[in-house]
Input
Amino acid sequence: MSENNALEILTGALTAGQIDTVDLTHTLDPDFPVIVLPPEFGQCARFRVEEVSRYDERGPAWYWRNFTCSEHTGTHFDAPIHWVSGKDLPNSSVDSIPTDAFVRPVCVLDCSKESAKDEDFLLTPKFIKNWEKVHGDVPGGAWVLMRTDWSKRSGAEYLNMREDGAHTPGPTGDAINYLIETRNIIGFGTETVGTDAGQSTHLSPPYPAHYLLHGANRYGLQCLANLDLLPATGAILVCPPLKIKNGSGSPLRVLALVARNTV
Amino acid sequence: MVAGAVTIPYERYSPEPAHWWLARALSELGKENGIGPDDIDGLCVSSFTLFPDTAAGLTQHFGINPRWLDHVPTGGASGVITLRRAARAVQSGDANVVACLAGDTNHVDSFRAMLTTFSRFSQDASYPYGSGGPNGSFSLMTSHYMNNYGVRREDFGKLCVAQRTNALKIEHAMMKKPLTLDEYLDARLIADPIVLYDCVMPCAGAEAYLVMREEDARAKNLPYVNILSSVERHNSFPDDPIQFRGGWALDIDEFWTMAGVKPTDVDLLQTYDDYPVICAMQMEDLGFCEKGAASEFIQGNTFTYDGSFPHNTSGGQLSVGQAGAAGGFLGLVEAIRQLTGTAGGNQVKRAKIAAVSGFGIINFDRGLCSGACLLESS
Amino acid sequence: MTKPLKRPPKKDPQKRTDSPTLPPFARSRKAIAFTTMAAEGRFALQVCSECKHISYPPREICPKCWSMDLQWQDIENGGKLISETVLRTSVNTYFRERMPWRVGTIKLDAGPTVLAHIHGDVGEFERVRLIARTDKSGQGVIMALPEKETPNMADDRQLRALTCDPKYRRALVTDGRTELGQCMAKALSNAGATRIFVGIAEDWRPYEGSDELAAIPGVEIMPLDVTDTISVNELAAEMGDKADILVNTAEYIRPGSPLDRHGVTLARDEMETNYFGLLRLMQAFGHVMRSRGADRDNSACAWVNLLSVYALSNWPVYGTTSASQAAALSLSQSLRGDFSGSGVKVINVLFGPLEESWRQPLPPPKVTPQRLADTVINALQEGIENVTLGPVAEDVVRRYRQDPFVLERELTQLQMGMGV
Output
């Protein structure tokens, strides 16, 4: 099948309404939570907007605003350079990552029941292998997203902060190692505020998803939404971050192309 | 030595500037006395609302080139003090004929504007306390005076009623409705214990007179009066916590000795009367009665032009209105008319000696300037 | 005896809100010095350095010995009412709307005679104590109070025109996440504020004391993040016309001088809260507050800024925070300009190290949040615009008055034992 044919089939399917474009992105909103670190560390900037003009004396016919935020505010992309383990890797910032990483097949591991039962649920290799028994092996080069339905939470429930820190699900180091080494995934994404579990500082290594993924030049996505609208396999993820020079990450619009009636 | 008194009929509000009122007084002075720009060589002016001008600017405006000039800022004391200045100038030969003018306009709202910026001490330390203006300051003095000297509202009322009676004969008086003591006692409170009839009505107007040597007045065939004595004093008794006397009390001996007459020789008295309490103080401090005897003195006289102890025979400011600095000239000009027999319907019979007193510039809590003179008919 | 103030009824929506009118504001430069001390609640008059004569009104020269060296000094405030009047007319619109108005002459024990507003509970010829306060035009005036406290004294309408008493007023506390914000809300409630809107930023983060805060009588928790323009504007749209008193408790403080810091991110966060936060609040709440300066008995009356005393002069231990506080103080001065003519006071409380987490390593003496809150209430009840709180702040202010340049040197020399 030639390249042209593939695109013709795709555009044919798109125009025939056979493909849904599912938005996996939260709205950038000043109220949307960001990760909270111990206060003596630098903090992730909240999303903020300031009007430049609004059809007024500052600009009579136009409305525009300045917005400010962190590279890690809202639904966002983590580049390998974000973590110390990936700091010296080639093409590890958002502007230099090969663009083919941004359009890839995607697998969705449904951990929603487990996460509902246990807010500190950890994704293990065993869970993945069980999933593969049903859906087949995770294909090489795919994005793997961990569905927890966490995006349906809001306010204090989302970060789920307590005196001993956040309590949210995430992967174990072994699970990430399995996905990288055995399945050669391109990246891993979550619905929570980070790719790691809320209590992952107490895992070994701490923050295993960040440490291992980025150390292996793989990518992360977090604060995803609508994962319940995706099939376990068969969808295509579209997730190009902003081309920020030396960027460690970027807020972005994440879309999934889903063949209709495949859920 | 003093001649040619003129009064420009007052108006409650005037669109004209102070310049117009002073000019009109000068013009009348010329007409009445048959003189023109070349006949005067001295000018003395008193006005609050002349800004940005002073007497200096008026010389060009009026087409005169005097060799003696003064601008007197003493408000209610300006009549007597202008007379003193002008008389000394004539006596010493600095001038032959001095035109003395006082006048102010009263635009709608100009009274408020004047109070706002009246003086630094008033601006800093009295105007912010209710902005009652002179009503506020005099109510405090009146209240204190009544408490300490046994003067009653009936006494003040009697003075006000008598002045109204006198004013009924004055064509241009602002207040021409007869006033009874009951009306006074029942009147609306303005600033306790001051009532409506204790207060003067701000208005526009002007007063003027000439000062010259006796022989010059005679040569021009002008009716004139002579000055027997005069005194002035400023910021007297600064350590009195509240004002109950004026500078007259300091200068009373000199005042009578210089004139060689006694209080009982006086045929009529013109006091500065922006509030009746000040009239009472002047009667005491000038020696017409003892301090603390004002009530008795008031009850013992009629104060009308045709009765005993004629006082403020033109109705005073209380009845004809307060035309700014012209209020300080009012009593003097009236005294000149009385002593020259030109007063009209309110003429005091056989008026030979008049006492005129002035009081002005309510700064912070009290009046600063006082003065008085004794005049004799020629 | 003063009639107790009644809780103002709900506003008649058909009635126009009175525009603020003002008592006379023109003053000489010397009288502005009197105003400055009145703003601190001090009753000070000029005393001649040479002959010790105390004079009033403010002047340039001693009227007894002609010395030009007249120093402002706190004066024994006892005196006797020797004459009084009730004004029933005035040429000034502000007073005209408030007639009758009681004023009187007081002979001070210290010597001079002054004219003053008279509290309703002062009897004829009674002894009084004088206070100096700023009036609605922001200028210093003197008021005579009964020598001893009387029932409902604060409700006297002439006195209430000089104060910002929280009683029956509605207040906004901009940050209730901290102990300070919570103490402030409680203190306002205790002082009789009818509604206390308390701003909470990032309600997705739990905070200590949240349940107790919500239980304070009159408290209504509102979303408010002073670093977020949208949030500030939304709250102002919701309750801006009910903010009679605004107390800005939002604070962002971190230790460190410019060279202790790596980059500007933290400094920017400080500015976002301490400077831009204040600016956002001003732009969102300032217009309606200043239009409500004469809105009946619960008019808008005070904007309270709580500022580190190092706003006056930089303390490098908290170098960049001091800089943001200096910016806030400067902005607060500008707000005084915007509010002049409105009758709404800008109250600045300069405090020394606060007993809270970010100042934990600092040695005592410190100011507890409770004390700061109580001080704000006192300033509101007394109508005092400039307050210095705590021994450290008092020390800094004293040195600042003596010579700000010497203070700058002192504060920027090596600091011992400050746990940098």
Observations:
- Chain A has a mean pLDDT of 95.
